[in-house]
Amino acid sequence: MVENTPDDPRQRKPDVTKAKELLGWEPKVKLRDGLPLMEEDFRLRLGVSKKA
User: Which of 24, 25, 30, 31 could, after both became Cys, cross-link 19 (CB 3.0–4.6 A)?
Assistant: First the structure.
């Protein structure tokens, strides 16, 4: 575990406005639905089991 840098925000809220304007891209999966999927994918890739 590494300490955060002083400029690291405590809460992140990505702004996809630029991606939408320049690329016509918008997220297809809501954050609340996507985070568990991402966690599961990372665990599989790293071979780490979920703690009970």
Answer: 25
